[in-house]
Structures are given as C-alpha cells and as structure tokens.
C-alpha cells in the first residue's frame, strides 16, 4: 500500500511540545467559525487525520500562540481543499469566484462572509500581526498564487494535463500545496524574518522548490490509492503508471529515486546557504539558518505525517459546517504513537549511544515510535505506565525476537524467539540452573574461577578491562553450571570459539565497508567451530546417559519433550550469549567506579574486612553496600539501554494507539533508569540510593522485564560482587585510564568500558590510577 512507503530523509523528526493545548484550541476555533459540525463524531473525524500533529511537526519551535495559528490553518485547509473534491472542483467558473473572494479578503474585508472566508480572514489578521510591511506584501502575493492555482487544479481534475510534462506539473503542485504560505508561516511563528536580499537569492529559491517537490512526491505517493478511487487524475505516481507503463512498485521506486536526487541537491545547497550567510549581518544570518531548518522540518514532518495520518486513506464524506465539507476516513481511528524517522546514521547512533533515546524521550515523552526504512516500526516504552499497559498485559502474546546482533548466532529455535507455553516450559528448565540453591551450590566454584582470572594477570602486560572481564565470564559459563563433564580441551575450544564470534560480530558492526567481509569470514569460521564442539558434546553426553546432575545440558537432555541436539544447541548458545556479555560488561563498569571513587572502594573494603576469614561466596554476595555498588553500576551508565524487541503477532489497541501486526515493542530501560522522579540526580553514581531496597521491576530493570527477564540475572550479580571483592583483596590489581570521565562504548547490546581503561596486576611501584 503506498501509504506504507518510506522516503529516506536525513533529518530528525521534531514535534512541538504544545501539541495537546493547540489541538484543543483548534477544535474550538473550527467550531466557532462553522467549519466543524457539533458533536463528538465530527471532532473525532477531524482528529483522525491529525491536522494539529501536522502543525507540530512543521513548526516544532513555535510558541503556543504560533502553534495555535498553524493548527487553525491546517484545519481551515482541510475544510477549504476538500470542497473541491466534489462537483465544485470540476466547475472552473465557481472555483474562480470562490478563490477571488479569498484574495479580496486580504485587501478589503467583507461583511457577513461565508464560514470559509471568515475563517481565512481571522487567520490573515493573525498572520500579519507584528510583521513588516515588506513581509506582508510578500505573504499576500504567496497567498494569491495559492488561491489562483485552484483554477488550473479544476482543469486537471477534468483530465487535462499541463503542457510541459512533469516539470510543469511540479511547478503547479508547489503552489497547490501552499508552499509559499507555509514557508512564510515558519518565519511568522518562529519570530524571525528572512532578509529580502537572502530570501530572493537563487540559493534559497531553489531550496524552497526542492522542499516543495519532496513534499509533493511524498503526497502523491501516499494519496495514490485514494485519488485513484475517486477518479483524480492530478497525481504523478498515477501518471507514471498510466503514461510510462510502470507497475505500481516501479512507480513507487521512481518516486523514491527522484526524492533521493532532490535531497542530495538540497544538502549541497545547505553549504551554499552557509556561504551566502557569511556576507550578511549576524541577525540576517540567524534568519537564513532558521529558514533552512524550517524547510527541513517541513519535508521531514510531512513525510512522517503523510504515512501516519488517515488523510490519504480511502474516505467517505462527512458533513462539516454549514457551507463547507470535510472528507475523513471511517477506518481505524488509531495509529502508532508519534516519533522520529531517523536517518541510517541516526539509527546506527541509537544503537551506539543511549543519549539519543533520552533526546527522543524529551521530545515525544514516554511512548514513541522509531520508523526504520525497510524494517518494521519499533515502539519504545519509557515509563511504568506504558510498560504495564502495553507490554505486561500482553506478555504471553508478544513474540520474542532475540537481539538483532545475535539473531543468527542463537539459532531459529532459541527460547529468546518463543512465546506462550513453549517459552514458559523452557524457562522452567533453564532458569533454576542459574538461581537459588543450584547457584548457591556452585558459588564457591565460581568464586575460585574469578579469583584465578584476576591472579592470572600477574606477569602479563596490561589488557583492556572489558577483555579481562569477558574472559572471566566465558570461563564461568563453560563451567559445570553448563556442562557436567567437559574435557579441558573442549572447554578451551568452546571459549575460544564463542569469544571469537563475539569479536567478529562486535567489531564488524563498526568496521569500514571493505573490512566487513573479513569479519564475516571470521564469524563464519568461529561459528562453525562452536557448533561442531557443542553438537559433539551434546551427542557425547546423550550417549553417556548424562542427565542426572544440575548442569544446563543435563537438564535439557532429561527434559520430557525429548529435544533434538540442534534444539539444545540453540538454548545453550542463547544462554552463553547473554550470560557472558552482560555480566562481563557489568563487571567492567563496576570495577571502573570502584577505582574512580576511592570513597566507594574504602566502604566496600571495610565491609569485606568485617567478614570472617572463611566466609564463602554467598556471604560475600550478601554484603549490602557491595550489592548497592553493583546495582548502581548497572544503572550509571545503563549497561543494557534497551530490552529485547518483542513482535506483535495479534494487532491490539492500547492507550489510544493501534499496534498492527509486525510492530516491534521494546522497553527503553535507559529512560526508566534516568527518570529524575525515581532517581534524583540520575547521572550521579550514588550506591546509597539502593541501601533501602531495590525499586520495583518497572523502575529498575537492568536484566529486562516480564517473561523475557534474563534467566542468568542472579548469576550475573553474583559474578559482579565476587569480582569486586577479589579485586580489592589483590593489592597489586590496578586500572590504567580510570582517572577520566567514563566514555562507554557499545558492545553488542550492552555498553562497556573503552579499550583505554586497562587492567593489570603489577608491583606496587608501577604507575597506576590507584
């Protein structure tokens, strides 16, 4: 369907924070001028096509009065433009009379005007308020061009085509979409005027034309089905099909190609505009910069709105007002929540830098949709209310997808990709191996592995802290927790293979294009080694009848469902992927803070010193301040900024929005962890905030939430606590590079310490940060 077509635009979608107030004002304004019928049905019909949202996207920086004017304009446009979809639009004489009356209204107000004219008169009065005479003259000219174009539009509706082909049609559409008045309005509501010497320049003139053409290409694409149904001929996509013999997909591709060419040219002109500004006064330069931004907001806002509004869906006519008509859809009144449509570069940044999540949250609130070209939309939930209503109410229905970076690695049968009863059965088998009594029995073994890992640094050159910690967690995850009787050479082979897979995946994501093939090859080689070793071990254990101990492999082999070797392999790799990386990255963050904050380290050391000499692993893990340090280290920065994506298989409606099949829902853990209402001074590392207890699972969720809560959460916390304890007990354990502010780097789905922070065990005279 053309309304689902996306155009790749490189600018961020922004939205005005005064939207709700302006929407309410707009309904009253339309009713006051007779442009909206009484009753809730007419108001609901108007809201479906989102005229207020359109204004908020176009003018994100306007104050409330400015946004009210923009909303009233869009509501008025709807009433005015839709009159021409009926018989009036095919009578050039009547069209000419109607538009002439509106042009005259700017120069000589009439008595007892019709609702359409009265509404425009009010808009024009507010439009010119406070603006210079020169600007008002330009605005009157642009409005006159807009009204005059409807005479040609009426001819187009009768099947005529403009001589001059596509170029002439685009010139016509620039006027028909009210490009001139909308660009003027950006100055009016933005509180600036573009100096005439700049406004009439060839550079800004071409940029205006390009912006209008980008808007036209998007509008003609998404409105094609609607206009085809009502017999509308003035649509470029339909013309490409009819005139050039293109298929619907071919015509859409051509519209996208033309848009890409225009956007590339616009970006080049941005540099010219900056050069132009160098010869202007400071105030004039400011006007040019604001104007260019306004053109970007127009293109970007229209692209998003045209795909989410019901304006271009097949419609029926609903009477609105005494002398006006509006068409509006009678289909689903809901859409996905508003949100950005980031460029590919911003999508990449979103995965690398969680601060972008905070930026989106500041603009759109605790619920927003990230549109992704060629991929399903992704809805982010950032508050307990949204998590409860949207995710937890449908926890058993939403299908797990795993993490995109590990989706191939974990295999098609992974429990991370399951939902419902099958998912619950697997969790009941897997989770007890890494929690409660089973974990307590293995606690001292895990403690020894961690202590050996830290002491193994002695005599070695410094190595990245994150490399050290992932080596330790890999060793823990190949211990009897997972495999009961794993031979040393097999264990070492599995560790080498899984760490090699991680390196190839993580480094390959940020590698230059010409190096990615090399990382793909490395991934394939290590993945093959991992699969061979695991499948051989599964087959050996099955032949040996191993299934009586408390290892994960034994539990899967003895399950009543008689799982295949490949199925067991997928579950083991899923646990390895999550158990190695998240715990390791949490360890790295906690160790950084321990060495960054000597006061914190001293308090933990005092707790440890108060323990008996023979205290076991679980006694160490029960220390309250040590526990608080680990909890805070998972929050600042949030080691796992987002939860795993969950897919909507059965469409539903919640909180006023409709979630269609295929939509991905994801918890924005970063937003919850940095909510000032729950974590005062949220950017500060302050373990004391956890001494009175841990917030509920919808405010603090370092290991996810719901049925996909991490099965190894207790193990990860235990590993972190024991690592901090052993690091403090080793007098020669040190960190290099921990004396600067933390600049975390992306590591798969987590954040971790940069390579510049390194760990080593050296003599006391070695240079270190502590």
Automatic annotation (TrEMBL):
- The molecule here is called Cytochrome P450
- Alphabetical UniProt keywords: Heme, Iron, Lyase, Metal-binding
Protein family: Belongs to the cytochrome P450 family.
The UniProt transmembrane annotation reads: none
One Pfam family hit = Terpene_syn_C_2
Q: Which InterPro entries match?
A: Cyt_P450, Cyt_P450_CS, Cyt_P450_E_grp-I, Cyt_P450_sf, Cytochrome_P450_monoxygenase, Isoprenoid_synthase_dom_sf, Terpene_cyclase-like_2
Cofactor (UniProt): heme
Chain positions recorded as heme binding sites: 710
The record, for PANTHER family, names: CYTOCHROME P450 (PTHR24305), CYTOCHROME P450 12A4, MITOCHONDRIAL-RELATED (PTHR24305:SF166)
Tell me the organism: Candidatus Protofrankia californiensis
Cite the GO molecular-function annotations of the record.
Answer: heme binding; iron ion binding; monooxygenase activity; oxidoreductase activity, acting on paired donors, with incorporation or reduction of molecular oxygen; terpene synthase activity
